[in-house]
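My main concern about presentation is that the manuscript never shows what a single data entry looks like. Each protein is reduced to its one-letter sequence and a matching series of backbone shape codes. For the editor and my fellow referees, an illustration may be useful. For illustration, here is how one protein appears when written out as sequence plus structure tokens:
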Amino acid sequence: MKIGRNAPCPCGSGEKYKRCCSNTTSSAREDVQDEIAQITAMNPNLTIDELNLALQSKMKQRNNHPLDAFCGLTPTQMSNWLYAPFGTVKEVTISSPNTLNASPVMRYLELIIENILASNGALKATSKGNLPTKLVKQASELLPEFSVEKYNRNISISEFAGSNEDKFNALHYTRILAEIAGIIVRQKGHFTLRASAKKEYEKDGLAALYPRMLNVAVSQFNWAYFDGWQADLRLEQFWLFMLWRLKTHGDFPHMIDDVATAFPDLLLQIEEDPYLSPKDKLGRIVETRFVERFLEYFGFVVLDPRRVSPEGTKISPKITLLPLLEHTFHFKV
């Protein structure tokens, strides 16, 4: 009983089989098919409905069996992590710490909000529709307070400082997230604060807006926006699995191995490169989109940008996990 690649995946994700469990669970699928063949051979008079019930029972057993390829998660757990709405994933608690001073994104958001409030609720945008230069300077001056400052001493090439918003990626990212999240709105040449966000901020501070910013960052923002890597390789869906693996062992190359094993189709989507293997290229893209422009921007990790040792040998990315990561995400698996 073969499952078509375009048929709904039996794991219940709602995705097409070819985009879900077709490679990772192929051996489990073959085992189920063998078992069904045995049932049919031993019970030749079973009706189609009875066979379907038997198949459903076997698939349910398989979907709740831990897989090595999923680092011990079951297909059911993986499906939930990939497709459940933000904040509803099982066995993961996402908290809002009272103090978010270590998060560049949240500090920049605070600056934007405070500047809007100080401007009688309407902060004048530049002619290009960007945040004003005065605010950009204030945000740049925050760099020494963040852990990334260790590797961002040259302001002219830093992601966390700039002379205007166009040259200040982390601030630009923050403004875009805040607009998508419905916290701020730009209209008639001014930035204003939505009434609901203002009420939340005045009551509970940044912690009230933290989940909204995280939600947008992983579910609505296009991770390919800033870079020149292939735009059709979407990694957002796998953010929770990648975060779990990184939080578990703190090793970037190991995390890439885990991702490539769990989702082998990703390697098939990688465009050919004469200088990089598919897995090496996947690692570069994950490093840029997930580590640098999500985890670092939010203050969850610090990435050592050095790729060559003092002796001249190539070294792998080294990531330091920061307290805010532990305070925000709690895995129960």
